[in-house]
Amino acid sequence: MSNTHLHAGDAAHGHNAIAHVASIKVLVGVFVLLLILTGVTVGAVFVDLGALNIWIAMGIATVKALLVAMFFMHLAYDRPFNGIVFIASLVFAGLFVSVLLLDAREYKPNVDSYRALSPLVPSSSN
Amino acid sequence: MSTTPHSTAGVAAPLPHGGHGAAAQGSHGDQGHGHNPDLAHHFDTPVQQFDAGKLGIWTFLVTEVLFFSGLFCAYSIWRSLHPEAFMYAHHYLDTKLGATNTVVLLFSSLTAAWSVRCAQLNQKRGLVVCLALTLMCAFGFLGIKFVEYSHKLHDGIGWGESYQPHNPKLFTTLTPSGHYKGGKYVSEIAAERGLAVAGVPYADLDAPGKLAIANELRTEFLPEPPTVRTFFSIYYGMTGLHGVHVVGGILVYIWLLVRALRGRFHSGYFGPVDYAALYWHLVDLVWIYLFPMLYLIH
């Protein structure tokens, strides 16, 4: 990348010397997909699939998040290192949530028996 | 120093700015072989400068993800331990307003991404339009959020101990799968029965008077799960932190818009437009998860 100043002709053809330019087709296409997925996730609420509902909602949210990250945030065209840095944060956030969740469930019986014994702590109805 | 060949023809007149002092010598578009006013001294090329800034903003976004993950943790633990509170409390959230805000934010992400494209291609008017649209959507999002918050707080639905709803929805049926059915607001029940305190009907009572009637009626209906107030602590915590980020985005976009109007961005210098858009997309990403987590509990 030695040519750091752009020629007018480049801009007219939708190119940039410094970074990838997203085409209007991709931008609008991703937006329309995001709208459709929002409609699907709202509609899915009215179908009772029990515990599966939350996973469907989270799955759709993740597909939406991927679309935003890959195209709006340019990760699909970016230097891979930026994507690796970002994915690392998601891995650690996932680790944080899942390990704490395991821990909280592990000690739930202790909390419940403490609640049942102590007159000072409001008891949980269920 | 820059070793790059300078082609001055056709470049959208980069204006020198104050920060470069003596180096910014040219002032009429033709930089000759002088210093590129948009290139900080410690970078060799605009590409190197852009990539360094980009890694910087991604690192910032990483800290943001971890910042929000604390609240996502609180949400997961409470929902896993007290699902009944979530099944009950989601009746207070307006899915239509939540969905509207989702669309507003998705559209603002489109205009933010488009603003980067405009800056990269020297489309100065398009850049200003896209930045202004992004800003308008951000204000629209906050406006809808304000309507939601004020409606809730007016009904006594606050966080923690300030959760004292005087017009709660009371339910008659709890399905085996944990759904609350047959819900009616206290205001509806009071109107049907013509409930009043000292001749003053429910609708004209002050908050403590309404609260007294609500608490009296509660005994006839299903008991409210005891941890509902914690749901609202989490609701206000998550949407509030997200809202603060929207306010931050508004400040950044005002700054970008002012600079765009002054013609500061062009195909050789658009880093700030790109970095702000990345931040704005992250704010959108967080909302993409918050919307189903809070508004679409089934």
| Order of helical and strand elements of chain A | HHHHH
Overall average pLDDT of chain B: 88
Please describe the biggest sheet of chain B, giving its number of strands, its sense, and whether it closes into a barrel: 2 strands, antiparallel
Count of DSSP H/I helices of chain B:
8
Round the Cα radius of gyration of chain A to an integer and report it: 24 Å
Structural class of chain B: mainly alpha
Structural class of chain A: mainly alpha
The percent range for helix content of chain B is 55-70%
How many strands in all of chain B? 6
| Estimated helix fraction of chain A | 55-70%
- Based on Cα principal axes, name the global outline of chain B: elongated
List low-pLDDT spans of chain B. 1-32
Provide a descriptive summary of the structure in words.
The complex is a heterodimer of chains A (126) and B (298). With 126 residues, chain A is mostly helical. Helices cover 67% and strands 0% of the residues of chain A. Chain A contains 5 helices and no strands. The longest helix of chain A is centred in the C-terminal third of the chain and has 27 residues, at 80-106. Chain B has 298 residues and is mostly helical. Chain B has a two-stranded antiparallel sheet. Chain B has helices at 46-81, 83-89, 95-120, 124-154, 186-193, 207-218, 228-261, 271-295, and strands at residues 169-170, 173-174, 180-181, 184-185, 196-197, 200-201. The chains are: A mainly alpha (126), B mainly alpha (298). Chains A and B meet through helix 1, helix 2, helix 3 and helix 4 of A and helix 1, helix 3 and helix 8 of B.
Question: Helices, strands, pairings?
Answer:
The complex is a heterodimer of chains A (126) and B (298).
Chain A lengths: L7 H5 L11 H21 L7 H21 L7 H27 L1 H10 L9
Chain B lengths: L45 H36 L1 H7 L5 H26 L3 H31 L14 E2 L2 E2 L5 E2 L2 E2 H8 L2 E2 L2 E2 L5 H12 L9 H34 L9 H25 L3
Antiparallel strand pairs in B: 1-4, 2-3, 5-6
Helix pairs in contact in B: 1-2, 1-7, 1-8, 2-7, 3-4, 3-8, 4-7, 7-8
